[in-house]
Design goal:
This is Multiple sugar transport system permease protein. The chain is about 65% helix and about 0% strand. It is mainly α. Strands 1-2 form a two-stranded antiparallel ribbon.
Amino acid sequence: MSRIASFVKYTIMIILAIVSIIPIFWMISGASRPYEELFKYSNSFNIHLFVPVHPTLQNFKDVIFNERNPFLTYIGNTLFVASIVTALVLLINAMSAFAFAKLRFRGKAVVFALFMSAMIIPGEVTLVPNYLLMHNFGWLDSYKALIIPSMLSVFGIFLLRQFFAEIPDEILEAAKIDGASMPRTFLRIVLPATVPPLITLGLMTFLGNWDSYLWPLIVINDDKKQMIQVAIAAFSSAEGTDWSKILAASTISTVPILIIFLFLQRYYIQGITMSGVKG
């Protein structure tokens, strides 16, 4: 019976993996086709649906060396903003989560409840107030408008608090008796014990900022400062949509995420498993 169950389990996993990989494979295949060939075989299920008849790298060249839309500049902009936001989120949210988990202060339960209630507010509801706030600060068309509003993650505080709460108080008391200050205890004992959830939160934050489209579109007008998802959408206009270039740009933008995930997937899976979060 266990063999049958294992066979069924692995069969389902293989099917799900194939279903997940097919769109990615088709994206790469479409990026390697001339535009005239892109939809030629879409109505029939044969090998040419996934394998180009006349493979070419011209789409990638047109995207990378496009003077009107310098794609490498957009990748650099997005990498800079996503990295800064991720670092700030890990630092600020880790300190906040540690305070909610281990420190005692008046009104802690009420403040934490208010933080958690913010999770039910859709991001679209806060777009106009945030835009007006950025306008009043004079931060429109600058990276401050992308970085500062994204520094705090309510979900990140909740995630890290669950791990910090599991650290025995005796360890913190022993560090205090040995003369370690609270910041030193936090840096030397607490953070090293919570590497998997930190990497999990870091990957989620980085991916969220890498894929961000609506907020950069609203607050950034200078093309030289624009983010990668807005740049990909720029290949679609009133004159038409160049799907070959969109697929090539999407393929290029996927590479950094895949590289990061391949190196950190062990910690990411461990953090998700330990937290009990299903995604």
